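Two proteins, back to back. First:
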Amino acid sequence: MEPEPSPIPAPRAAPRAHRVVVLALAGLLPFELGIPHRIFGRAKDPAGSPLYEILTCGLAPGPVRTDADFAVHVEHGPELLATADTVVVPASYELGPAYEHGRLSGELAAALAHIRPGTRLVSICTGGYVLAAAGYLDGRRATTHWASAEHFQRTFPAVRVDAGVLYTDDGDVLTSAGVAAGIDLCLHIVRRDHGAAVANDVARRTVVPPHRDGGQAQFIDRPVPQPQLASTTAARAWVLDRLHEPLRLTDLARQEAMSVRTFTRRFREESGVSPGEWIVGQRVERARRLLEQTDLPMEQVARETGFGTAQSLRKHVQAALGVSPTAYRRTFRAGAGPTRGPGPGAP
């Protein structure tokens, strides 16, 4: 006998929290299932109220197999997807036809049919197979775990697969690589919705780095430096105190008593990016905070962040965030949040 589905929770009174619905599929990875709950669930407004409401559904209410020695009990069936502002599909090792043939099973297709047009769609790791099989990724740039990337591209030739990044953001459809990259993507969404200050607070509470750029490599040949090798940590700390100054590679190398060549190699081994790329990323992060939290003129923001001129600031912010500094400030100084759907029962 089929278990009775739990009543679908009514939305909060306006202004309601942005509803995130996580779709739990058989064979799911418990760690990745928990990422949206951990990251979105820690995002609060200045008054301490939750900015997101996170709920979980399955293809039917009841137990859902995991890849571990336990199952998870899901209260809601797929009808909950109709109430979502954002749908997250975590990884699963039992995707069936979606993985094997690039098509949805009848049950999964019926579940996804509940999703309203305009709902933001997010995948973590191999959850991208579900979005691709449903046609949501056709013609779009997307990623998945590097170990699955070649198979993913063969299975879905209409998708522009980028196996070398942590996550992709195509506006209303976002995808991530495996495991921890799902944390990076969810933090990116919080940052996009509510600004760097909120995302950084979530990161601090979760004890993870506040920002790894989506274009960063998925994996590094030696992600953990060999113990006998000197680290570049001191140089990075030195840089963070001097982002407003001109920075030369020779100055960074000198902090670690290394040659420029050795320092550059070690830095990339430890961070996955070049020193120059890392510095630009840190300057953009500082610009975010100044744009969100101050009314400084653009020329002064440029000087404080080491970009020098408003034109250089505009170029780097536009490349990193997809919007101009003025548009970014207008969004977050106005306190704008994520796009909210009309919710169940709305016309």
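And the second protein:
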Amino acid sequence: MAATLHDVARLAGVSIKTVSNVVNDYPHVRPATRERVQAAIDRLGYQPNLSARSLRSGRSGVIGLVLPELSLSYFAELADAVITRAESHGLVVIVERTGADRARELAALSSPRMRMTDGVIFSPLGMGQEDAALLEVDFPLVLLGERIFDGPVDHVTMRNVEAARAATDFLLASGRRRIALIGAHPDEELGSAALRLRGYEEALETAGIDVDRALVRATTLWHRANGADATREMIDEGVVFDALFGLNDALTLGAMRSLQEAGLRIPVDVAVVGFDNIEEAQYAVPSLTTIDPGRDQIAQRAVDLLVQRIESGKSRPSRPATETASFDLVVRESTPA
């Protein structure tokens, strides 16, 4: 039989009200009493009645996470970081995948499943700046990514331009001058691809090097196959390059495969840098130099902002916060020592 509040109270030698205060994390409980109650909870394996708690508080203890896809390691690792941070707040996370489709992203914002949560962390790829007003929803929402800026909700993003410029500067400092870029989206004015391309171009301009459009390769998706195909096409065309910057690690790992198939040595013939610092990057052969965009920091701040909004009782902030994560260049074997 499952343990009850009465059982915990009896074992800890306190009132049922005190046990309830500890379970609900009320602050006005003496530390020694809290420790005794928690020890009893642990010993008995007591599980709070979340349904009853939800009815009393008006909260479900659940938040939503809406992502474009989970097949890309970056988003899978982001989801894991969000879940870990949410657990520290006593929250459960449900994940919804949109396939980067605008219609599905809009549907997620009005989804009954999402509306059963206390709030949502939302990472769109299909929506754009013109959709900012559609984020005016009646539940707490934190926005991720680079598709919409200056919207009506809290926003956590990364330093795409500065990070891409740092990656390109690093390659230039190693003596490379013909730096290929994989993953451009030519028609995109705002988004990760456009911002990272801007950083690449700024670094070349500062170094006095003209951008050679033969070195800038577009891909619709940012998967390994796309990086491999774009790199193979460039090699087949006889384009000469001594470095390669992939706009995410998946593209870059695919590019490395094509380089090696062509007999090009990394980093002797071609130095390679990626972006995202997914776990696979450190186990590639050679291991991949990459930008760590602060994924864990993004997850933690997104959850913390959402919790603040939930606890405030207001669905939208009067002054939306915009927070930008710091980044690091993680140097490994794919670039010269």
